[in-house]
Amino acid sequence: MPVEATDQWSVLLPVIVGGGLALLGVAVGPAITQWLESRSASRATRIQRFEELFGLLQQHDEWMNLKTRINAFGEKHELPSEPLAKAFAISAIYFPEFLPELRKLDFVTSNYGVWTNEAAMRRLAGKMSTINDGFDDANQPYARALNEMRDRLIEYGVSRKTRV
Question: What is the pLDDT of residue 161?
Answer without folding.
Answer: 77
